[in-house]
Every structure is written in C-alpha cells, then in structure tokens.
Design brief:
This protein has about 300 residues and is an alpha/beta fold. It has a single domain, classed as UDP-N-acetylmuramoyl-L-alanine:D-glutamate ligase, CATH 3.40.1190. Helix content is about 40%, strand content about 25%. It has 12 helices and 14 strands. The strands form 2 sheets. It has a 9-stranded mixed sheet, with helices on both faces. It has a 5-stranded mixed sheet with strand order 3-8-7-2-4. A hairpin with a 2-residue loop joins strand 13 and strand 14. Helix 3 packs across helix 11 and helix 9 packs across helix 10.
C-alpha cells in the first residue's frame, strides 16, 4: 500500500449559517471547537438545516484525495456500530479506501463534526469526537503499517493516554511518517509534544503559517525557514494567499496560488493540499511538482461545498 492514514473517523455534517449564528452560540469564526457534552452538541444540531453528510476527518479527507489520484490507500479510525458509523464505513469504501478497522458497539457514538459555512466561505467547526477520540494501540494494525510506504497522521488525533499510545505504536512500526499539525489550538495545547515529534519522529510535516509560527514561537517567517533548514527533514507550509513553501535542508521551493477562483467553501483546502503533495512525494515527483499538485487539488476543492472532490 502506498499510504495509510490514521486519524479521527468523523462524519462531517455541513450546514450553511449566517454570522449571527456564530456569535449567538459563542463560537470563534474559522476555528475548531471541541464539544465534550453530547447534549450540547445535539442542541446545536437541532437548529440547523443539514446540506450534506460526508465521511470526514482531516486525514480521511486527504486519503480519499490520494485515492482519487489513483493510489492504493488505507485508513484506520475508530467508529461505533451505529447509523453514523455505517455511513462512515460505506463512504470510505465507495472511494476505494481500504478501511482497516472492525466496528463494534462502543459506549460513545461515532464522532461528528458540524461544519458551519458562513456567507464569506469561512468554515467554523464544532466537533464531538465521540468514540473517535478513544482510539488505542489495539485499534492500530502493525502489519498494515509495515506494509505501507508511508503513514499519515493528524495532530487532531494526538492526546495523552490511549491516543498517544496508538501514535507511538504507529510511528515505531512505520517506514516513513508524515503528519499534519492540524490546527493552532491543537498546537498550543500540545506544543512540547508536537515539537518533539517534528524534530525527532516525522519525515514530512504539514503546517500552515500560523501553526508553525506558534509551534516554534517565531517572531517572523524568516525564523521559520531557518528552523526548517536546520531540521533537515521535509517541512511543507501553506501560507494562504502567499501560496505554499517546502523546505528540505538548504532546498527552499515556493509555489503560488491559483488566481481568480470562485471560492465557495474553504473546508478541506489543507487536507486536499496534503493529498496532492503526498501523491507527488510517494510517486517520486520533484518537490516543486508535489507543491503544484497540492495547490491544484486545494484550488479545486475550495470551488465547491465540502472537503471531497
């Protein structure tokens, strides 16, 4: 197998809202809020009109994109044997993703993420992790990891306790490891651990400019570039309108954004960028070509609703 993703198995529930819904519910636009109370989550859902549901989760979105580019891929993520769990599994199989997890009835339901899209195309996420966040080392198949050229992990999944053990097992069995830092709140919450991962364990790190700046507490982007050069591993950074940059040792490669796009929804832009880049990486394209493929994929996904092409 080319790439095996390990991440939060979350059903995305996409809804259009206006800005007042965001403020009335005390949410911060363009961020991801974790909701721990199932009733609070259900209350949010009651007032919403659902546009569509998709088998989501950040790494799962990337894995589907990599599959659509013709690569053999798999995914591990924890679901419960419930209605959303069945939808999740079906959704991945439809996209030719080998789902390497056997569901059973769990105490918590399958994870769900409300994606609230405001008129300016920004997305604000409210995630109830459910059983997805309870992944443990027994859920991770060592043979599947050893038989993959590369595993792709998400920062969202990392947490003290069982998820950390699942991460450690995956990394110790992997041929190569790529990871996305996922979200600035994630980085701020797990800074020392993420820094250790980036420095010692990862072959490829994906981050946006805010995440990496926060992680290394840089004052400017020059410091980020210097950090990445010294790291001497592959660091791939998206910079919004400034495009993307990849740094490996002394090699620094930049790629601009596609202009004049009709942007509908920014959901999945980073996930599909990673998909395009990793497709290039495992198929031995140059860093420049990989960046271009990532940019092409993210440009396509932001011109439609949802994180799937």
């Amino acid at each position: 197998m080319k790439i095996l993703g390990i991440g939060n198995a979350i059903v995305d529930v996409i809804c259009k809202v206006d800005d007042s819904f965001i403020s009335q519910n005390g949410l911060t636009k363009s961020t991801m809020k974790l909701i721990f109370d199932e009733n609070e989550f259900k209350n949010l859902l009651t007032n919403l009109k659902i546009e569509k549901t998709v088998s989501g989760g950040s790494v799962a979105n990337s894995i589907v994109g990599i599959s659509q580019l013709g690569n053999q891929v798999g995914f591990i993520g924890k679901i419960s044997d419930d209605q959303f769990g069945s939808k999740y599994e079906e959704g991945l199989k439809r996209e030719n993703v080998e789902y390497l997890y056997t569901k059973k009835k769990e105490e918590l339901p399958t994870g769900t993420c409300l994606i609230l899209v405001t008129p300016d195309s920004e997305r604000t996420m409210c995630t109830f992790l459910g059983t997805a966040g309870k992944i443990n080392e027994n859920d991770v198949n060592s043979d599947a990891i050893k038989n993959s050229e590369l595993i792709f992990l998400e920062g969202y999944l990392w947490d003290e306790g069982d998820p950390k053990k699942a991460f450690d097992k995956a990394i110790s069995n992997a041929n190569k490891v790529a990871m996305s830092l996922s979200d600035q709140f994630c980085v701020d919450r797990h800074k020392p651990h993420f820094l250790k991962l980036v420095k010692n364990e990862l072959d490829v790190t994906f981050a946006n400019e805010q995440e990496i700046t926060s992680l290394i507490e840089a004052n400017n982007f020059e410091e980020v570039i210097n950090f990445a050069k010294k790291l001497n591993k592959l660091m791939v950074i998206t910079r919004g309108e400034k495009g993307a940059i990849a740094i490996q040792g002394e090699e620094v490669v930049e790629c601009g954004v596609h202009k004049n796009l009709k942007i509908v929804d920014l959901t999945g832009a980073g996930d599909l960028f990673a998909a395009g880049f990793l497709h290039g990486y495992v198929n031995k394209l140059s860093i420049k070509q990989s960046l271009e493929k990532g940019t092409e994929m993210s440009s396509r996904v932001i011109q439609q609703i949802g994180a799937r092409l």
